[in-house]
User: What shape does this take?
Amino acid sequence: MTRIIVLGARGFFGAAALACLRDGGARPLAASRRAGADLLMDAEDPRSLRAALHSGDVVVDAAGPFQFRSTVLVESCLSIGCDVVDLADSLDYVRKIHALSDRIASAGCRVLTACSSVSAVSAALIRLSGVIDPLRVSTYLVPATRNTSTPATAQALFASLERPVRLLRAGALVERRAFSDTRRMDFPPPVGRVHARLGESADAVTLPRVWPTLRDVDFWVDTRRRPLNALVAAAARSGLVRSILRAVQPLGRAVTRRLGAKTGGFGIEVEGVNGDRVSAGFVHATHSYVVAVAPAVLAARRIAGGTFGASGLVPPDRQIDARELVDYLRRTGVLSFGLPAGGA
Assistant: This one.
């Protein structure tokens, strides 16, 4: 029997992926660098990976933050003969994986990088939007911060403030200061209108590979509290403010877990070369984070069950079936919006 191994299973998103796999009838193994999991594994330690992994395993990699990760896990899996499905959101990490594409193909393994909201859900929503030749894609992350305020997400946020973020403009990657611009998007209830700030995601490098017509790709995030948005923007401008926020961030996370937003969602705006515009996405009152793990869960189940057709470095539009994603999320109570008939 093919084993599904969830690395980072003691973190928030790893635990969520583990629970979703079990709810679907799979028997995944929990892996962590900390004691108490089924397997003791460290994504940056080749020896521990060789000791724990077997040829044919499917590794769901949720060991973030990916901003600080190397390619040790993927390279180890290629030598062992494992497939990898990761939840990476980091542009730099995904570029590192893309650089291994020839080795991935020759190893006969599958690697699904950014198999999460970024970029599998983004790609699925583009497909379902009906826009054939997209010119611009803007993605909006509206986290349920009461659930997702973790040390890993805090580290990822601070990493984005240390340097300019990158986005696609006129077909080229350009740099901007994080949280420097604001854009609004109207989500349906229970989320409503969001005032999101400019961030960085892997979509800027993954989506143009699928849709060469794309000229502009950007990513926006709303902390759900306007004063906090302003404070994070100040931290992007000032090293002193960053240092203060970093020092108090454990207290800030504790407060957010009590007072942060319960509702959340993920959405996109797509504009085609013919001028068509579509806004679509997903929302939930309490567990919108399922959107982030659903693609990896669906892909891992299909790979383990022998029904996943693609091989090599799998692009985001081939990682999951878009309508299967919508159906799966609907069964978990996550609502879709803005999808044309047949996609909703």
Observations:
- The chain has a mean pLDDT of 95.
- Residues 239-259 form the longest helix (21 residues).
